[in-house]
Amino acid sequence: MAKRQHSHQRNQSLLQWSAETWAFLSLRLFLALRFIVAGLGKFQDSEGDYGFSNLYDGFVASQTQNFSSNTNLPNFLSSPYFHCLAYIEISLGLLLFLGIRTKHTLAVIALNYVSLAFGMMLLDNSSNVSAIGTHLLLTAAALYFVRHNKFELIR
Fold this sequence. Notes:
Strand content: under 5%
Number of domains: 1
Order of helices and strands: HHHHHH
Number of helices: 6
Radius of gyration: 18 Å
Distance between the termini: 22 Å
Number of strands: 0
Shape: elongated
């Protein structure tokens, strides 16, 4: 009987959703769009044009140079990270937006924010660490409210 009530609750109309459900949906959409935009931004040059060369010649090259000259982190560790970061951000954003394995996607997003914060800590960039920490808190809140998820393509 309890299982029937649970499925009934998942099929409620939008007007009957709880505040927790709306809080989760808001966090989910915000974080998904944030990740998609951040990933796409790495493909963009200063003139607003998108391209793969902008990612590799611009973002990856500048970040690898920045980390090799300002930290003790060797290039063989930072370069692969920067090469795949944009693709990871776009993929995670799309997975979250579509609601594919939402709880697991949010957990990986949280780990990604931890890795980004670590990089900013190595660069002694306190303002970016704080901004990333805020996004990490939003991700943690989304993980807390994930049980109120009403729309998920793949559970």
